[in-house]
C-alpha cells in the first residue's frame, strides 16, 4: 500500500477514525426555473475507490457535485458523507474539490503556494495563520505534484497541465478524504494525464474515495474501479466491469456518442467472426473487442 | 515652510485629514475585492442609490447614515431580485436601479428643498463636517476596518473560489452579504468626504492601481489601503490651499497614482511590456 506521505503518520490522516463513504439517497434536485436536473439519484461508494462519474454534458454530473458540496439542497433525498450531513462534513474539511479550469479566475493575484495554502484554511484557527505543519503539508503537496519550483509563480503564468497540478496539490494539502475532480483531463497533455492518474491511484491505495467526473470514456476502464453512469438520474452504478458496458454507455449517451464497428473483411483476414466496437464522444474513444458484454475493454488507443 | 504647516493649525483641517484618510483606507480595502470580481459597477450603483435614503432620513429627522444605509441595502436587494427574475444583463440592471434611486433622491430634494443640502451629499464636504457626522464616519470606518482585517482571508477565498471556500466550511453567501453590507456602510461614510459620485473612484481606483504592481493578494491589499489612506489624507491637506473641492483633489491624486503604475509598474506596466517586446526582438 502506498502511503500518502512517509513523514505523516496514518493517524494524522484520520484514516481509521472516519469511514470515507459517500451515500446519495434518492436525491432529486430542481432549479428555481423548474428544470429537474437530477431525479431519484441513488448510489453508495466506499473509501479506497476511484469512481468515474460518466455522462454527457448537462446530464447532471455537476449538479451531483454541487449536491455533494452543499451548493444545492436536494428537493428530496439526502447526501451523506462518512455518515454525516454535508455541512458537518464540510466543516471537517472531509471533501476536497478540484475545479474545472474554466471555473478559475487565472488573473487573480495569487501565487502557486498561496493557492495550495488555501487547502489548509479549514484546519487553521480563527485568524487563519498557517502553522508549521500547515506549511510542511503545503510544501509536501507541491513536491508530490512536481510543482515546488513554481511556488512563487502567479497561477496565470502556468501551462494547462501545471495549473491542474496546482489544484491537485491544494486538494492533497487539504487532506480531504473524498476528492472530487471535475473533468481533470480536459486541456492537459498526455504526460500530465498519466501523472494525475498515478496520483489518484496512490490516493486510492491510501484509502481515499476519488470521484472523477469525465466524458473521457477511453481512460475510464484504465483507472476507475467503480463507475456511476448519469443521465438525469443514475442509470447504473457499480464495479466498472459490470457497469461500463456498451449497452449501458449507449443508454447514457443516447445519440451523442459516435459508433464505429469493424468486422469481417475490414478487421480480419481469416474467418474470425468477432468485431470491434469503438464508442467516442470526440475525446478518447472506448473500444470493445468481441461481443458486447461484461468483459473489460482493451487498452484504448488515442484518436488525437 | 510655515505656510505648508498651516492646515495643521486648524482643528477642522486636522479632523478632515483624519476622517478622509480613514475613509480612504477602508474604501481602498474594499476596492481590492470589488475590481477583482468585475463588480466595480456595484460600487457605482450603491454610491448613487444612497441619495434618496439621505434625503428621507433628513425629512424624518434620523441620522443620515441610517437612511443611506437602508437605501443602499434596498438597492442591492433589488438588483439581486431583478437579476433572478429576468433575463436582463447585469449592467442593464445596475444602470436601471441606480439611476432610479438617484432620480428619486433628486425628486425628493426638489420637492422638499429645505430638508437637505444635496450639494454636500453629491459633492461631499469633509472640510465642513460636523463633529457628530465625523464621529459616525469614524465609527463606521473603524468597525468595517476591524471586520475586514479579521476576515480578509475568508473573503479572498470566497472571491477566488467559492466551491473551495465551501469545502473548507465557509459560508460564501454569508460572507458575500457581509461584504456588501460593509460596502454599503463605507459608501455611506465616504459620502461626506468625497460625495456620492466620486466615492465610485474610492472603491475602484486604489485596488486597480495596486493590481498592476503585485501578483499577491496580501501585498495588493496593503498597497491599496496605503494608496487610499495617503491620497485621501493628502487630498484633504492640499484642498486647504486650493480652497475646497476635497473630493476632486483626492480622486485626482488617485488617478495620478494609477497612471504612474500603468506606465511604470515593474512587471505589468506599459514600459516594462515595451522593454520585454524589444528584448524579444533583439534576440538573434
Query: What's the average pLDDT of chain B?
Result: 88
> Number of helical runs of chain B?
13
What letter string, H or E per element, gives the SSE order of chain A?
Answer: EEEHEEHEHHHEHEHEEHHEEE
What structural class should be given to the helix and strand makeup of chain A?
alpha/beta
Distance between the termini of chain A: 34 Å
Order of strands, widest sheet of chain A: 6-7-8-3-9-10
- What spatial form of chain A do the alpha-carbon principal axes imply? globular
Question: Any overview of this molecule?
Answer:
The complex is a heterodimer of chains A (304) and B (284). Chain A has helices at residues 61-68, 86-91, 112-118, 132-144, 160-174, 190-205, 220-223, 240-243, 246-253; strands at residues 22-30, 36-45, 49-54, 76-81, 84-85, 95-98, 178-182, 209-214, 226-230, 234-239, 258-262, 276-280, 286-289. With 304 residues, chain A is of the alpha/beta class. In chain A, strands 6-7-8-3-9-10 form a six-stranded mixed β-sheet, sandwiched between helices. Chain A has a four-stranded antiparallel β-sheet with strand order 2-1-4-5. In chain A, a hairpin with a 2-residue loop joins strand 4 (76-81) and strand 5 (84-85). Chain A starts with 21 loop residues before the first strand and ends in a 15-residue tail after the last strand. The model of chain A is unreliable at 1-18 and 292-304 (pLDDT under 50). Chain B starts with a helix and ends with a helix. Chain B contains 13 helices and no strands. Chain B has helices at 2-5, 11-36, 40-60, 64-85, 90-111, 118-122, 131-160, 162-167, 172-202, 205-211, 217-242, 246-264, 270-282. The A-B interface holds A 32, 69-71, 90-93, 95-97, 99, 103-105, 108-111, 114, 118-119, 121-122, 126-128, 154, 170, 174, 176 and B 36, 84, 150, 153-154, 157, 159-161, 163-164, 166-170, 211, 214-217, 219-220.
Amino acid at each position: 500500500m502506498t502511503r500518502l506521505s512517509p513523514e505523516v503518520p496514518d493517524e494524522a490522516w484520520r484514516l481509521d477514525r472516519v469511514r470515507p463513504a459517500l451515500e446519495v439517497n434518492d436525491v432529486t434536485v430542481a432549479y428555481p426555473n423548474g428544470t429537474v436536473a437530477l431525479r431519484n439519484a441513488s448510489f453508495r461508494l466506499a473509501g479506497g475507490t476511484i469512481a468515474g462519474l460518466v455522462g454527457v454534458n448537462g446530464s447532471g454530473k455537476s449538479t451531483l457535485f454541487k449536491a455533494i458540496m452543499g451548493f444545492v439542497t436536494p428537493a428530496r433525498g439526502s447526501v451523506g458523507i462518512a455518515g454525516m450531513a454535508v455541512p458537518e462534513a464540510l466543516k471537517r474539511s472531509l471533501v476536497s474539490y478540484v475545479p474545472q479550469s474554466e471555473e478559475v479566475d487565472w488573473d487573480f493575484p495569487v501565487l502557486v503556494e498561496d493557492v495550495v495554502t488555501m487547502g489548509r484554511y479549514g484546519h487553521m484557527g480563527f485568524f487563519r495563520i498557517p502553522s508549521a505543519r500547515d506549511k510542511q503539508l503545503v510544501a509536501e503537496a507541491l513536491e508530490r505534484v512536481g510543482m515546488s519550483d513554481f511556488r512563487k509563480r502567479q497561477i496565470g503564468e502556468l501551462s494547462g497541465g501545471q495549473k491542474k497540478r496546482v489544484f491537485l496539490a491544494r486538494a492533497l494539502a487539504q487532506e480531504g478524504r473524498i476528492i472530487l475532480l471535475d473533468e481533470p483531463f480536459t486541456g492537459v497533455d498526455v504526460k500530465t494525464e498519466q501523472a494525475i492518474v498515478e496520483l489518484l491511484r496512490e490516493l486510492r491505495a491510501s484509502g481515499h474515495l476519488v470521484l472523477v467526473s469525465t466524458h473521457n470514456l477511453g481512460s475510464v476502464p484504465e483507472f476507475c474501479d467503480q463507475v456511476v453512469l448519469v443521465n438525469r438520474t443514475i442509470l447504473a452504478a457499480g464495479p466498472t466491469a459490470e457497469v461500463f458496458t456498451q449497452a449501458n454507455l449507449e443508454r447514457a449517451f443516447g445519440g451523442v456518442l459516435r459508433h464505429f464497428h469493424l468486422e469481417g473483411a475490414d478487421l480480419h483476414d481469416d474467418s474470425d467472426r468477432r468485431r470491434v466496437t469503438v464508442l467516442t464522444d470526440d475525446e478518447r474513444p472506448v473500444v470493445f473487442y468481441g461481443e458486447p458484454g461484461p468483459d473489460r475493454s482493451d487498452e484504448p488507443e488515442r484518436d488525437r | 515652510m510655515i505656510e505648508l504647516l498651516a492646515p495643521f493649525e486648524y482643528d477642522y483641517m486636522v479632523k478632515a485629514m483624519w476622517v478622509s484618510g480613514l475613509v480612504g483606507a477602508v474604501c481602498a480595502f474594499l476596492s481590492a475585492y470589488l475590481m477583482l470580481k468585475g463588480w466595480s459597477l456595484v460600487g457605482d450603483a450603491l454610491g448613487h442609490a444612497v441619495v434618496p435614503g439621505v434625503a428621507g432620513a433628513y425629512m424624518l429627522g434620523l441620522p443620515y447614515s441610517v437612511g443611506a444605509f437602508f437605501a443602499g441595502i434596498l438597492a442591492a436587494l433589488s438588483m439581486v431580485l431583478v437579476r433572478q427574475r429576468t433575463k436582463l444583463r447585469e449592467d442593464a440592471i445596475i444602470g436601471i436601479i441606480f439611476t432610479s434611486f438617484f432620480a428619486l433622491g433628486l425628486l425628493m430634494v426638489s420637492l422638499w428643498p429645505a430638508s437637505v443640502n444635496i450639494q454636500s451629499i453629491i459633492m461631499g464636504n469633509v472640510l465642513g463636517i460636523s463633529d457628530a457626522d465625523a464621529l459616525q464616519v469614524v465609527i463606521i470606518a473603524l468597525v468595517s476596518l476591524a471586520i475586514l482585517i479579521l476576515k480578509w482571508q475568508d473573503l479572498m477565498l470566497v472571491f477566488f473560489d467559492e466551491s473551495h471556500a465551501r469545502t473548507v466550511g465557509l459560508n460564501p453567501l454569508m460572507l458575500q452579504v457581509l461584504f456588501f453590507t460593509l460596502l454599503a456602510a463605507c459608501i455611506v461614510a465616504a459620502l461626506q468626504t468625497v460625495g456620492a459620485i466620486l466615492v465610485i473612484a474610492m472603491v475602484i481606483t486604489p485596488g486597480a492601481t495596486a493590481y498592476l504592481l503585485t501578483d499577491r493578494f496580501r501585498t495588493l491589499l496593503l498597497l491599496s489601503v496605503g494608496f487610499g489612506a495617503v491620497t485621501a489624507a493628502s487630498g484633504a491637506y492640499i484642498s486647504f490651499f486650493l480652497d475646497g473641492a476635497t473630493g476632486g483633489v483626492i480622486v485626482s491624486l488617485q488617478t495620478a497614482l494609477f497612471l504612474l503604475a500603468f506606465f511604470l509598474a515593474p512587471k505589468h506596466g506599459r514600459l516594462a511590456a515595451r522593454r520585454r517586446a524589444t528584448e524579444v526582438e533583439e534576440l538573434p
